[in-house]
Amino acid sequence: MGSAAQTLQRQLKELTKNPIPGFRVSLKDDNVFEWEVGIIGPPQTIYEGGYFTATMKFPNDYPFNPPTFAFSDDFFHPNVYPSDHRICISILHPPGDDPMSGEKAEERWNPTQSVESVLISIISLLSDPNCSSPANVDAGVLYRKDRAKYDAKIKEQVEKSKKNIPADLKIPTKTEDFVLKRIQEEEQDDDFWYDDEADDIIRSRKRR
Amino acid sequence: MASSDPPRDPHPPTTDERPTDQQILDYENSLRAELLADAPFVSELAGLEELEKEYEGGAEIFRKKLQELKKDYPIYRSIRKDGNCFYRAFGWRLAELLWSPSSASSFWHDTAKAVLISTRELLTSSGYEQVMIEDFYDTFLAAMKLREAPGEPTGLEVFQSEYASSTTICHLRLCTGAELKRSRDLYEGFAEMPIDEFVIKSVEPMALEADNLQISALVNAIPLVNIRIANLDTTPGSINFHEFSPMDADAKTLPVITLLFRPGHYDVLYGKNENVEK
After folding, report:
1. Percent of chain B topping pLDDT 70
2. Is residue B230, in this structure, part of any structural domain at all?
3. If you average pLDDT over residues B74-96, what whole number do you get?
4. Is the pLDDT of residue B12 over 50?
5. CATH code at B239?
6. For chain B, what is the mean pLDDT?
7. Which of A58, A138, B45, B219 is paired with B225 by a 20 to 30 Å CA distance?
């Protein structure tokens, strides 16, 4: 193998076979460098019940440089730029460049990251914003100063997002639906390579 | 305090005018690409006189050390200055040794083949996912001419292609990371941080240069060569060399890769008696 397109094709196949709970991925216009991602609002967070679509764009030299991730609609969040809905998260920044101050370098992009590790980091950022360097200053201030008002604004956003729910998708309402399904799939699939250590790394990255 | 107001910025920055992080990154990357565009990944062979030209009118100590170096190492190849040069230089020299007809039927060649093929297990046993490393591994073997696939670059072509050579470099970075994790007790004292953090921070990302710890680890991960590094620095006296040898191999029986180190950069040196093939 030897091209970004092949690497992406393989990751897409893997994600179709073993979907990450809470996400839907598909190609946009059959272009392997542009993916449409649907995020189901995680239960027991303020995003519960919502469905948010986004576009992930991959560079020609993926995985040596990171993809970008932008929501399709307005997304009020301290780490999402109001202008282009692009998410600002350290895992999508190459090391050496320092657009976010104060972050630890181990959260940066490197070629061992995957679509899966990026999506997992993004979902954890949603409910746990990084306010040290907000992309949306208003959202950052509101989050710190008036959480009730912030939450209300997010709820409004969640309501609006429901129009995006695909007809064939049943939104899970219990946390179990997110976790258990995955484990069952792994048990059924003998080929699925599973390693505790790799899992720990993903978990520790998720903790940020 | 001065009584008058400080001069006003005629264009005070507004939030709308500030370029996004991505724009800044794109701009930096385009600058870097422009700077590098003409430099080959691995240059043709050149005499050390070419290097001496760079130091004409420079500090006497550099000229003296180069003069001295030239006696034993008259030829070199320059490696692209993109932060991957150590791994690129190592991979290139290793490949050259493997491709060399003189090593073709040697015991070393057979050992090398087995060691390089087993790097997949080295990585998976250190926790790298098989699906993630497969592409890196395949291209690395192709670079060493240990694997061939129709329509995909092999040997020299790998080192001439930006994507394929990055893939090979990435594999060497992961081998380094795997060795650091596998023998963490050995290395942790030098890392100044937990070894897993060190690997994520200073080994896995592309374009980050290798230091002593990474070099020691790579020599042990792929215990097929000794590395000898000539230090071109301003310390008085003769040019000094740093030697790195694998711990669990009989170093005397292994070939030596010689590199020239100038702060932040490695190039490849060739000895007088080395079989240099074009």
Report:
1. 89
2. yes
3. 96
4. no
5. 1.20.1300.20
6. 89
7. B45
The residue annotated as part of the active site, out of A8, A15, A87, A88, is A88
**More reliable by pLDDT, B29 or B59:** B59
A96 touches B: beta carbon within 8 Å: yes
d(CA B177, CA B82): 20
Q: Which of A75, A51, A73 is nearest to A161 (CA)?
A: A51
Residues of chain B found within 8 Å of residue A61, distances taken between Cβ atoms? 162-163, 166
pLDDT of residue B277: 58
Chain B interface includes A195 (CB < 8 A): yes
**Which position has the token pair 């057979």?**
B110
Give B189-201 pLDDT, tens digit per residue: 999 899 999 999 8
Answer whether B197 touches A (CB < 8 Å). Answer: yes
Query: Does the residue B18 lie in any domain?
Result: no
Would you say residue B11 has pLDDT above 70?
no
Task: Closest CB to B205: pick one of A88, A110, A137.
Answer: A110
- Does residue B264 form part of some domain? yes
Q: B274 to chain A, minimum CA–CA distance in Å? A: 32
Q: Which pLDDT value is given to residue B17? A: 64
The confidence score (pLDDT) of residue B102 equals 87
Q: Is B128 on the interface with A (CB under 8 A)?
A: yes
Q: What chain B residue is nearest to A136 in terms of C-alpha separation?
A: B15
The count of domains in chain B is 1
Domains and CATH numbers, chain A: 4-207 (3.10.110.10)
CB contact under 8 A, B205 and A68: no
Ranges of chain A whose pLDDT falls below 50: 1, 97, 99-103, 105-106, 180-195, 197-198, 201-202, 205-208
Taking the C-alpha atoms of residue B211 and residue B265, their distance in angstroms, rounded to an integer, is: 10
Write the residue in A2, A110, A198 that is nearest to B163 by C-beta: A2
Sheet holding B240-244, edge to edge: B46-47, B75-77, B265-270, B256-262, B226-231, B240-244
**Which of A93, A94, A195 is the closest to B127 by Cβ?**
A195
Evaluate whether A84 touches A75 at the Cβ level (below 8 Å).
no
> Using CA atoms, how far apart are residues A112 and A103, in angstroms rounded to an integer?
19
Q: What sign results for the dihedral spanned by CA atoms B234, B235, B241, B245?
A: negative
Active site residue A131: no
Domain membership of residue B119 (yes or no) is yes
Interchain CB distance below 8 Å, B205 and A95 = yes
